[in-house]
Specification:
heterodimer, A: about 500 residues, alpha+beta, Immunoglobulin-like, MetI-like fold, five-stranded antiparallel β-sheet, three-stranded mixed β-sheet, elongated, B: about 325 residues, 13 helices, about 0% strand, flat
Chain lengths: ~500, ~325
């Protein structure tokens, strides 16, 4: 409508030349850019820096990554992930997290005495009535009380059938051991019994905790010859015992060259405790960080390079080739990713190379699809047309206009891929795939700890929190990167 | 007509995908180095020949492929290499219902909670509930379900039973299967991802819808708040949520593979893990094809459903 009106106006109005005067030349600052120029990258960087969550996430990721790089030098573990302390030493298995325990140095060949039997003991003495049994005396610990074993000795009594040994947790600072010995309900559970009245020793080695204090009660018992019923005397003796953690002399001398038997040395710290094989879990997490971060950076990069090539070929070729290539992607995308990871790992066997192939084999499709779309979109976008019209060379078109816009998308895709690789690695390890046994990854640490986590939950929760924090940090950083590189998306979600 | 064409196209794609999955699975299981029949013991030559004949391993590879394709197409997924006489079909018939029921409970529960949370967060934007929901979303999306599973198992079952002395008969069991209460922990752990995804999506959809012209018109007309919420906002916002239900089921069932092992549930995840540890290739292959086929069909159903309720999708497809 308006166009026709204008045409009519042009046709009917006469313009005289005097009506037109040249405009005065523009002077002053009207065309000057008065504010500093902020380019695409600077803008993105500014947005990122202003985002406090992003900075915090970046700090977390960098620290964990650095720990992975330099950590193995500070937290020595043998190449197979075993800490040197784990030399067939039961003292080091399944330790709770510690900054370094006080360890009692023992002879390397510490042996617990065999059952001690008194010479000249009258084993044929007639059995006493349960009430007539005299109180047990001389109860003490033979040698050192350690978490590996507590050996109790006492004076044997003639006329009894044997001795019952009970163990209870010490309830208070100074438990009344005599009262506990007299009261059957306070004796705790029976750890064993000695059925030879002449034997005067017993070694208890079951599940002693260095953090606890125990009350041992040894009480003689008399069994009825007819009913075989055992009557435990209430005149047993009690003893408060604090088992100590120990270290063998050779291991102690690696920590402190001057250490001698009977000394106390401070052991190595185990921030996350040790696992069922005595390996330091923190060291394993640190060396696992290397593997995990290596995979998490490499796999998205491989997928990106392949996806970029595939997407560019598809987008630039167009026509039937494009349709075919996109159909292939559609099919791969509808295959269940996790199952293919599992299958590829099973087919290729465990190990880093097969893990890399399995994780990147089908991950490139989203890069290819999105980058193809971006190439198509950017080729036809107005500012590219405008730039071409102004005579920009192809080279400058690609490097000044297309590449920077692609890079934003690439960075967002790439950073979003990283936490997924960490998750998938853990997933495969939990299924018993992943890497070969001695090597540690976060997933294998979790898998091993998961097997016994109802008994030792900290062995699992400490590494799991590290993984959770890392995943959250990567996720938040990825979100922030997307916000920074694509302002159009801001405020959505 | 357009709808029929759309469904036909989807169906065709699903068939091609199934065929591709089968071929990849076949090639990969046959490419496995080593002998599928080797056990810890050496087996005599005679036995080996009999076993190879039984499993068709003596035939040329292409013939094996055609045979397997024919069997799979007719619904026979083969026999275990490790336990002679154990059919993959039987394993699936016994253990799939367990996996499927946990997955179903998780998805249904997660969807409803997610919808509710998403709507609440959108209605009370920037309130405490919105912030809490967003935090849950970040955690639920970025953390894998097995972490939640271990956490719930310890804090909701092991800790109360061992440290607080709760009666085991009346409380959640850390592991076990067969009672209704055994659904709670695994399904809850699996549903967090679903809750997070749906909350996030529903919230953004609700916010977008609230700025739309038709909501403004309805407000101007004087439509009551409840009517506006249910008939105008939720109804439109909920549509795209349907489209992610398919991928969600796939993700939840995939996570279930691990969760079942954590809670000692005799589902397909357990069977999968066993077949992996025993190198039972025929079972791995059979289960992969079954699982893959199941996922592809779930995706097909969601696509078609979405096409049915939202005509715009059919036009663009």
């Amino acid at each position: 409508m308006s166009t026709t009106l204008n045409t009519q106006a042009v046709e009917t109005t006469e313009f005289s030349k005097e009506l037109f005067k040249p405009m005065p030349a523009v002077t002053g600052d009207a065309e000057r850019l008065s504010r500093p120029v902020i380019g695409y990258w600077k803008d993105a960087l500014l947005r990122l820096v202003r985002n406090r969550t992003a900075l915090f996430s970046l700090t977390v990721i960098t620290s964990i990554g650095l720990l992975g790089i330099v950590g193995p030098f500070f937290f020595p573990s043998m190449p197979d992930g075993l800490s040197y302390e784990n030399v067939q030493n039961p003292d080091l298995i399944n330790l709770a997290p510690t900054l370094g325990d006080e360890l009692l140095v023992l002879d390397d060949a510490t042996a617990y005495p065999d059952d001690l039997v008194k010479e000249g003991f009258n084993a044929e003495a007639p059995l006493l009535a349960p009430e007539a049994v005299p109180p047990l005396s001389g109860l003490r610990v033979e040698g050192k009380a350690t978490v590996n074993g507590v050996t109790l000795v006492w004076e044997p009594i003639e006329g009894v059938s044997g001795y019952s040994v009970f163990r209870a947790l010490a309830s208070s600072q100074t438990p009344d051991v005599a009262a506990m010995a007299a009261d059957p309900s306070q004796r705790g559970f029976q750890v064993g019994s000695v059925s030879n009245p002449a034997q005067y020793s017993y070694t208890d080695s079951a599940g002693l905790d260095p953090a606890e204090r125990y009350v041992y009660i040894v009480a003689p018992f008399v069994s009825n010859p007819e009913t075989l019923e055992e009557v435990v005397s209430e005149k047993g003796a009690g003893l408060l015992v604090e088992p100590r953690k120990t270290i063998t002399l050779s291991d102690a001398q690696e920590l402190e060259p001057q250490a001698a038997v009977g000394d106390t040395v401070v052991g190595r710290p185990h921030f996350f405790g040790t696992d069922a094989l005595g390996r330091d879990i923190f060291s394993r997490m640190v060396s696992g960080t290397r593997v995990d971060f290596f995979l998490a950076l490499l796999v998205p990069t491989i997928a990106l390079l392949f996806g970029l090539a595939y997407g560019a070929i598809s987008g630039l070729a167009g026509g039937k080739v494009d349709t075919f290539l996109m159909r292939v992607i559609e099919i791969i995308d509808s295959l269940p990713e996790l199952l293919l990871f599992i299958l590829l790992q099973v087919a290729m066997g465990k190990g880093i190379p097969s893990l890399i192939i399995a994780l990147s084999a089908f991950a490139w499709t989203s890069y290819a699809r999105i980058l193809r779309g971006e190439v198509l979109r950017l080729r036809e976008i107005e500012f590219v047309h405008a730039s071409r019209l102004l005579g920009a060379s192809t080279r400058s078109l690609i490097f000044r206009h297309i590449a920077p816009n692609l890079l934003g998308v690439i960075l967002v895709l790439w950073s979003g891929h990283i936490p997924r690789i960490i998750t998938y690695e853990a997933f495969l390890s939990l299924l018993g795939l992943g890497v070969e046994a001695p090597m540690a990854t976060w997933g294998t640490v979790l898998q091993e700890a998961g097997n016994r986590f109802q008994i030792a939950p900290l062995q699992f929760f400490m590494p799991a929190s590290i993984m959770a924090i890392t995943l959250l940090a990567f996720f938040l950083l990825g979100d922030a990167l997307r916000d920074a590189f694509d302002p159009k998306l801001r405020g959505r979600e | 007509m357009r709808l029929a064409r759309f469904i036909f196209k989807r169906l065709l794609l699903a068939l091609v995908t199934l065929f591709t999955l089968f071929t990849i699975t076949f090639v990969l299981t046959r490419a496995v180095p080593g002998d599928p029949l080797v056990k810890t013991k050496e087996i005599p030559e005679e036995t080996r020949r009999n076993l190879e004949a039984r499993y068709g391993l003596d035939k040329p590879l292409f013939e094996q492929y055609l045979l397997a394709l024919k069997n799979t197409a007719s619904g026979n997924l083969g026999e275990s290499f490790r336990t002679i006489g154990r059919e993959v079909n039987d394993i699936i018939a016994e253990q799939f219902p367990v996996s499927a029921s946990i997955g179903l409970v998780a998805v249904v529960f997660g969807t409803f909670v997610g919808l509710g949370l998403g709507i609440a967060a959108a209605l009370y934007r920037n309130s405490l509930i919105d912030r809490a929901a967003m935090f849950l979303c970040v955690a639920g999306i970025s953390l894998p379900s097995f972490l939640f599973a271990y956490m719930f198992q310890y804090f909701l079952a092991v800790y109360p039973l061992t440290e607080l002395g709760v009666d085991p008969q009346t409380w959640l069991r850390p592991a076990g299967w067969g009672e209704l209460r055994d659904y709670i922990l695994p399904s809850f752990a699996l549903s967090l991802g679903t809750i997070a995804l749906i909350t996030r999506m529903m919230r953004s959809q609700m916010v977008e819808v609230s700025f739309s012209e038709y909501v403004k018109t309805a407000k101007a007309k004087g439509v009551s708040t409840l009517r506006l919420l249910f008939l105008h906002q939720i109804r439109n916002a909920i549509m795209p949520v349907v489209s992610i239900l398919g991928p969600l089921v796939v993700a939840v069932m995939g996570g279930g593979l691990i969760i079942e092992n954590i809670f000692g549930i005799p589902g397909l995840g357990k069977a999968f893990l066993n077949s992996i540890t025993n190198n039972d290739y025929s079972v791995i292959m059979g289960l992969t094809i079954f699982f893959g086929g199941f996922f592809i069909i779930v995706n097909l159903i969601t696509d078609v459903l979405y096409g049915l309720i939202d005509p715009r999708i059919r036009v663009n497809a």
